[in-house]
Amino acid sequence: MTGSIDYRPMRPADTEAVSRLILAAFEEFIADEYTDEGRREFARFVEPAALTARTTEGHLFLLAEAEGRLAGVIELRNHDHVSLLFVDQSFQHQGVARELLTRALAVARPARPDLERVTVNSSRFGVPVYERLGFRQTGPERTVNGIVFIPMAHELASD
C-alpha cells in the first residue's frame, strides 16, 4: 500500500475501529499461541470500553492512518511499557510499528526525563519485530491466564 501515513492520538470515537484492527491482527498472527482462556482474556483487554478506560488512566494511545483507514496502534502504559502494538496486515513492513514507537517515546521522554528503558511482553510472533526495534529478551517465555509472552526491554540512549 502506498500513500502517506498520518499519526495522531486516539479519540473516544476510534475505540471500536482500534479494537477491530487489534483483534483481526491477533486472530491472524497470535491467537493460535494462546489457550481459550488466553484468547478470552485478550479479547476483554481490547474491548472498546477497556481501551477507553485505560485512556482515563493515563495510557498513551497513538494511531497510524492512511487514506482514511486505520493502519496501526500503539499503547504505552506509564510511559515505559508497550501494552499493545499492532499494525494492519496490509501496512506491515512499511515502518509503521517503528514510527508508532518513535512517536510514543517522543511523548514519553519529556514526561519521564529519567526514562532509561521500555519494556514489552511480546507474543512469539512479535519477537523478531521487537528485536528489529531494539528490544532484547529479558527472561524466559511465560504463560499467565492463558496468554503466552516473552518479556523484552529496549534500553534507551541518553540524550
Q: State the separation between the terminal residues, measured CA to CA.
A: 35 Å
Relative helix content: 25-40%
Overall 3D shape:
globular
Largest sheet report = 8 strands, mixed
- Unreliable runs, pLDDT <50, ≥5 residues? none
Question: Whole-number average pLDDT?
Answer: 94
Supply the CATH superfamily name of the domain at 6-115. Answer: Gcn5-related N-acetyltransferase (GNAT)
**Alpha plus pi helix count:** 5
- Percent range for β-strand residues: 25-35%
State the CATH class of the domain at 6-115: Alpha Beta
What's the gyration radius in Å?
A: 15 Å
Count of distinct strands: 8
| CATH fold-level assignment of the domain at 6-115 | Aminopeptidase
What is the CATH architecture assignment of the domain at 6-115? 3-Layer(aba) Sandwich
Order of secondary-structure elements? EHHHEEEHEHEEE
